[in-house]
Design brief:
mainly beta; 450 residues; elongated
């Protein structure tokens, strides 16, 4: 085989490879790295634009008729475009005009009607001897649908299923009055914080005192919250204590940061972060994983934006690291926090003392209760914080709020010695067929230690 035949064979293979390459590109709509879409290109127009566009200015001496002819030709051939490259194909021209019946579309997808929010309470109960004290937490609604309220030295239980009322405990004068109540997650056990600095743990089904936690604080215990088997208590002494109720030596961690009374405590849904508010105008975020047994635990974030006591705290149910906090009479603001970063996301001046906060479990809404001067409950749309409703009826500041297990009803208690029930959050879109399962295991080892 001679050199000529080799060259011819190589040329033939090169030509064949080029045809295959071009065919392969055509099958992929002629896409390459230089021209995005060759099939959508008008190469004649591109050649004209690149070659003659700069020469369109009429040459001196050109007759007006030739110039007019040139302009008319450019318009006829669509030469007045400015874009050379085409990045995607144009949509095909419809053969028939599309008839749109907007009325039928609107009928098929009607706008969501606004939820009806009753402006008055659906039920009102007497609450004689309830303490008109901003720093206490005297109302809580358990997962078993039983409401607990502390009136003076006595804790009463109101069963929402049948409306019956029973007395849980009446403490002696040297122990009372009761400063705080908090249901455990199982809805059966309840903790009672006392003026004597002790905390009692009760079984509500048998009305038995299981044990008394002593030595946690040096003065009254006005705030509490549960995190599984851990009961966290906050006192007037500024201390925050984690108590493991399963063991005899119940004090397992101490949080040190407040130098005045701790009036707000809330664990996040994950149980990893604790928010605490105090009469020192401070809001602290604590990390459970950093809790220390041998020494006081340092805060994750110390937030100093409030200018009054911070009692109202509420973790967002649809965003785990979002916390709402409310300030007292000199502050009057609801603030929203990213607790991972310790950043304030928004601050809203409500115009009155913020006593309590509750999130709607079914909609992006926040309910706040207030003191001077209107003593109202305000429903806000989140995140716009537009007022949706203002509920009035209390004649004194609405210090305490609690939410029913289904998330629909809110109970509020005020210094006017009334307990009111509001159907402010409506009904859930999908009703739960099963109630929350009771978590009894952590309490199986609770000994009756007095």
């Amino acid at each position: 085989m001679d050199a000529g035949s080799v060259t011819s064979s190589s040329a033939t293979k090169s030509s064949s490879s080029r045809r295959q390459f071009l065919h392969r590109k055509t099958s992929q709509e002629n896409l390459d790295r230089f021209i995005p879409n060759r099939s959508a290109m008008d190469f004649d127009y591109a050649h004209y634009m690149l070659t003659y566009k700069g020469k369109e200015n009429p040459i001196a001496g050109t007759s007006p008729s030739k110039e007019a002819y040139r302009k008319q030709l450019a318009e006829s051939l669509n030469m007045n475009r400015t874009r050379i490259l085409a990045f995607r194909n144009k949509p095909p021209t419809p053969t028939e005009p599309v008839q749109t019946d907007w009325s039928s579309i609107q009928q098929a997808k009607p706008a969501k009607a606004p939820r009806y929010i009753p402006q008055t309470s659906e039920r009102t109960l007497d609450a004689p001897d309830i303490q008109d004290d901003y720093y206490l937490n005297l109302l809580d609604w358990g997962s078993a649908n039983v409401l607990a309220i502390a009136l003076g030295n006595t804790v009463y239980l109101w069963d929402a299923a049948d409306g019956s009322t029973s007395e849980l405990v009446t403490v002696d004068d040297d122990e009372g009055p009761v400063m705080s109540v908090k249901w455990a997650p199982d809805g059966r056990h309840i903790s009672v914080g006392l003026n004597s600095s002790n905390v009692q743990l009760w079984d509500s089904t048998s009305n038995k005192l299981l044990r008394t936690l002593r030595g946690c604080h040096q003065s009254r215990v006005g705030s509490m919250d549960w995190n599984s088997h851990i009961l966290t208590t906050g006192g007037m002494d500024g201390r925050i204590i984690n108590n493991d109720v399963r063991i005899r030596s119940h004090i397992v961690e101490t949080y040190s940061g407040h130098h005045q009374e701790v009036c707000g405590l809330k664990w996040s849904a994950s149980g990893q972060q604790l928010a605490s508010g105090g009469n020192d105008n401070l809001l602290h975020i604590w990390d459970r994983s950093a809790a220390s047994v041998n020494s006081p635990t340092r805060w994750l974030h110390r937030l100093e934006d409030h200018t009054a006591a911070v009692k109202a705290l509420a973790w967002c149910p649809f965003q785990g690291n979002l916390l709402a906090s409310g300030g007292g009479g000199s502050d009057k603001c609801i603030k929203f926090w990213n607790t991972h970063m310790g950043a304030c996301l928004n601050s809203v001046d409500t115009g009155s003392q913020v006593c309590a906060l509750l999130w709607n479990q079914n909609e992006r809404e926040l309910l706040s209760s207030h003191g001077f001067s209107q003593n109202q409950l305000t429903l806000w749309k989140y995140p716009s914080m537009v007022k949706m409703a203002e509920l009035t009826g209390h004649t004194s500041r609405v210090l305490y709020m609690a939410q029913s297990p289904d998330g629909c009803t809110v109970a509020s208690a005020a210094g006017d010695e009334t307990l009111r029930f509001w159907n402010v959050f409506g009904s859930p879109e999908v009703a739960a067929k099963a109630t929350r399962k009771a978590v009894l295991e952590p309490f199986a080892h609770v000994s009756r230690i007095r």
